[in-house]
Amino acid sequence: MKSLFRPSSAVLSAVIAAALVVSGCSSSVNDSAGEASGDCGSWAIAMHAWNGYTASAQVVAEIAKKELGCTITQTTLDEGPITYDAMEAGTIDVLIEDWGGGRWKEWSDRGAVIDVGDGGNVGLIGVYVAPWMVEKYPDIVDSKNLGKYADLFKNADSGGKGAWYEGPPGYTTIGEKMVSANKLNFKVIFAGSEVALIDGFTKAEANKTPFIGYAWQPWTLHAKMPNLEKGHVKFPANDWTDAAQASGLTDYPSTPLIKLISKKLNDSNSSFTTLIKNFKWTNDDQNMVALDIENGTTPEAAAQKWIDAHADQVKAWLGK
Amino acid sequence: MRVRKSYLLLGSVVLWIFLARILNGRHTLQIATYENTSFTSFVGERALSIRGNRTESTVFIYFFNPIRGVIDGFVQAIRDLIAVPAPNSVIPIIGWLGVVGIVAFVVFATSQWQTALLSVCLLLGCGALGMWQFTMDSIALTLAAVLLSLAFGLPLGIWAGLSDRALKVMTPFLDLAQILPTLVYMAPIALVFMIGAASATIATMIYAIPICIRITSHAIRTLNPAPVEASVSMGSSSSQTLRKVQVPMAKQMIVVGINQTVMAALSFVVIAALIGAPGLGNPVVSALIIRNVGQGFVAGIAVVFLAILMDRSTSAAAKRQESFIPPTAQDIKRKRLTLVIAGVLAIISVVISRTLLWAAIWPQEFMVARQVQELTNNVTAWILGNLFIFTDGLKDLISYSILNPLETILSQSPWYLTVSMIICLALVMGGVRTGVLAGVLAMCIVLSGLWFEAMLTLTQTIVGTLLTMIFGMALGIWVGRSDRAQRSLRPLLDAAQTLPAFVYLVPILGLFGPTRFTAILTGVIYATPVVVKLVSEGIRAVPPTLIEAATAAGSTTRQIITKVQLPAARKTIVLATNQGLIYVLSVVVIGGFVGGGGLGYLVIVGNSKPELQGKGLIAGACILLLGVIFDRIMQARAHRSS
Fold first, then answer.
1. Residue among A297, A273, A281, A294 nearest A49 (CA)
2. How many CB pairs under 8 A join A and B?
3. Span B205-255, pLDDT tens digits
4. Which of A312, B75, B319, B594 is most enclosed, with most CB atoms within 10 A?
5. Hey, are the CB atoms on B110 and A28 less than 8 Å from each other?
6. Of A7, A42, A195, the CB nearest to B339
7. Are A141 and A248 members of one domain?
8. Which residue of chain A has the CA closest to B279?
């Protein structure tokens, strides 16, 4: 047995040694890649799961790679503290769209992340019913009347009350407060994912079944279901900015979506810093790219298409 | 005696249901998700100050941060080698062809050429699925975690194998680690070591090391004592005995331990993505969020491929040493020659992968990911469109018939009623000590302020375990009685056990939507294989003489099963139920991602909302308390029934 094992370990170490030797010398593939990198440096962009985010992040990434010659890594990770921690640890440099309304304060107070203003997109969260219901029950979009329709929304999971669906865990929500403050006979169910909501609205609209849930602008579902906005339930105008202080009686505020960068990127004088600070576009711009992605175009191609069509705007972001 | 006990159980359950009806809705301790109790907000503040201190406190600067740095560096070094592009380059140090060459050579050197060929095919499969870099990241992380786990686990295991005292000290920790749901300890680890590869590696190690320790100590303990005694009587020192006799003799079993360690580490690969691990977990988790069944499926297949690759190559290495025929001189020469040739080929492939672009980065033309993804999405869409009556019907049936009534009893009755019921059941099933322990642990959950959520999780766990036991017993009896069933189902069960639950969570979500049922079904699928295995082993262990006697007495097959085999395998079945419970619990909490609610959702929401972090940590502790209560009651019961 021993005699069988010895040569293998000898050859194994030979292979490893050879691999190390080979890795020591620079090869032709590496040389050809060298020319791409300019003075921009190497940066990591956080990638969050929703399509709107992907659209913004991919446009920035494509410009950085093609125009500035940066080396860009795109890292998929969850939103919120996980990302801020990663920015503090130096593994993430850019967060292009944060809905949190200041939940990064703890990190920005100690200088770990830097708020560089909004990216032009404005987020507006709301409670929506499936649009077909508005035609049948026109007064349902007034929050005062929601209570009397609660029975319509009952299902197997709602424990005898109406089922009220909320989105993924990280999203800002005051659904439970709305239900209890307005004394509505609903049970809040945390669907856990964005697509659960998309499915919910789409199926309800197709089968004419009742559905009430969390929705927002900018969101690609609006492009696929143009009358969704009709189902927006109106609560009295908002009186809060921090979700923790909300009474639940009033509606969500409109939220400018913020760009955050790491201390490292902020301190460096990279052309990439300028790009991120200047990046600003509208909800329509984002929806255009996001819809392409949702319809099956690769994020790279969808972003490039928008970049090609908006050369002047890109030039302005680059400060040229 | 037994009759009286079952009457007692029945009586207390009836009383419980009756009281729950009367007192419905009182003292349920329900609080809204966004609300903190003074205890959870205290824990949240502590967590916050830990985070704030990471750059200042001495413990962090001199202890935790260096550990993080070393592990991060170790993982990064392996990733630089095979996974991520080197600085100023578009390719890693070794391109895909080089990795394939090296893996083929290593597997060939440690086992046979058939396994090497299989490994190559599986790696190429991962590449064709468009998952090359994710796969390499996962391999890097698994490799790092396994090497570190073995570095700690093997010595500890040998120590526990040699010293009874060491084993006694370690056993409670090993037991605890085995019932600890993975979701629970990820958040505390991430709090200390931050999000990233280091946290993921450490979390994986916590999962894998106990398995390594257990199998290694078992290997040392079950050795044939004769050679050991001979060596001692000939005057060898204890270290000589260990090095020259015990370890070489236990080698094969230890390799099995390594195999199990690798599989444990691999099953963590997906969920580790939640705390920033690079690798195959990322496409699976993002597929869950945007519920792209196709994307989840493609990444899931890559995980399965990787699992088969790792399992086959390590278990083949263990098996190869079984041959007792000494190799002839010619055999050795031939083996040497082929090894040298294989080694040269591996080196050539590495060199090519560093010089030619097609061998460095997986070529786009050889990818079927999009097609597989589209096909899966189409199939799912068809099922959703055409079978929803069936899937909705099944979901509603389970929900209305058992889930909702049980949830009403558990969560809508006063806490003191349910606590006394738990104590009562523990007393009857496990005795006074178990009763006291269950009471204390249940009161801890009450005091934590998360009682209501714990009851939601408890409901789902009980329903999931019931379903698991129905399927598991039926399949287990079949597999236990039929050799053909054993042969055909065994590989399937093995595969199902290594598959991370996240992989099938995505398609189940597609079928059943964001509901508690999705969470429960995922738990059932995860727990059934282990129950089947245990039950079938229990049935097989029944002495054949008993069955012959029953057959001679003219019993029918049904009578043999119900009157002989099941009663004789009773203890194993209780243990299987215990395993089922723990497995279902550990996966049901992941259901928080898909509308399952309960404690699992609080853990998840605690990860993404700073103001709820304390609540999330406490929710994790409550999951553990629930697990310990289950485990103690069932263990005590198994102990008694023997």
1. A294
2. 214
3. 998 999 899 889 988 888 888 888 888 888 888 888 888 888 888 888 888
4. B594
5. no
6. A7
7. yes
8. A76
DSSP letters spanning B295-361: HHHHHHHHHHHHHHHHHHHHHHHHHHTT--SPPPHHHHHHHHHHHHHHHHHHHHHHHHHHH-HHHHS
Burial class (CB in 10 A: 0-12, 13-18, 19+), A54: buried
Please state, in angstroms and as integers, the Cα–Cα distance from residue A289 to each residue in A219, B18, B299, following that order.
Answer: 11, 59, 25
Q: Are residues A210 and A88 in the same domain?
A: no
d(CA B139, CA B279): 8
Structure tokens at B621: 């502790």
Domain count for chain A: 2
Contacts of A174 in chain B (CB under 8 A): 34
The per-residue b/e assignment along B423-432, b for 16 or more CB within 10 angstroms, e otherwise, is bbbbbbbbee
CATH class of B57-380: mainly alpha
Domain span(s) for CATH 1.10.3720.10 in chain B: 22-48+388-641, 57-380
DSSP state of B493: H
Residue type, B88: N
CATH of residue A166's domain is 3.40.190.100
Radius of gyration for the alpha carbons in chain B, expressed in angstroms and rounded: 26
B188: distance to nearest CA of chain A, Å?
13
CATH class in words for B22-48+388-641: mainly alpha
Range picked from A79-93, B311-325, B401-415, B505-519 for highest mean pLDDT: B401-415
Chain B residues whose CB is inside 8 A of the A169 CB are 592-593, 601, 604-605, 607-609
Chain A residue with the nearest C-alpha to that of B397: A156
Q: Do A111 and A153 share a structural domain?
A: no
Name the residue with tokens 């307005």. Answer: A182
Q: Which two tokens stand for residue A284?
A: 């329509």
> Which residues, numbered 191 to 220 in chain A, qualify as contacts with chain B under a Cβ-Cβ cut-off of 8 Å?
191-196, 199-200
**B357 φ, ψ (degrees, to nearest 5):** -65, -40
Where helices occur in B356-482 by DSSP H, the ranges are: 357-360, 369-386, 388-398, 404-412, 415-430, 432-448, 451-481
- The verdict on A128 and A151 lying in the same domain is yes
Distance from CA of B522 to the nearest CA of A (A): 15
Residues A177, A284 within the same domain:
no
- For tokens 């000590």, name the residue: B433
User: Are A42 and A70 spatial neighbours (Cβ–Cβ below 8 Å)?
Assistant: yes
- Which of B55, B407, B601 lies closest to A169 in CB terms? B601
Residue pLDDT, tens place only, B594-621:
888 889 999 888 877 878 888 999 999 9
Nearest chain B CA: its distance from A69 CA (Å): 11
Per 3-state DSSP, what percentage of chain B is helix, strand, and coil (rounded to 5)?
85, 0, 15
Contact A169 B351 (CB under 8 A): no
Q: Select from A3, A15, A103 the residue whose CB has the most chain B CBs within 10 Å, as the one to mutate to test that interface.
A: A15
Q: How many residues does chain B have?
A: 642
Clarify whether residues A134 and A116 are in a common domain: no
Retrieve residue B127's tokens: 């590449």
B470-513 pLDDT, tens digit per residue, is: 999 999 999 988 889 888 888 788 777 777 787 788 778 878 88
Q: Characterize the bridge pairing of strands A254-262 and A113-129.
A: antiparallel
Domain check: are A116 and A230 in the same one? no
Return the closest-CA partner of residue B446 out of B404, B417, B480, B424: B417
Query: pTM of the full predicted structure?
Result: 0.83
Angle (nearest 5°) at CA A13 between A7 and A17: 145
| Rounded Cα distance, B42 and B236, in Å | 58
Q: Inspect the interface and report whether the beta carbons of B34 and A103 lie closer than 8 Å.
A: no
CA B14 → CA A305, B274, B417, distances in Å?
68, 43, 13
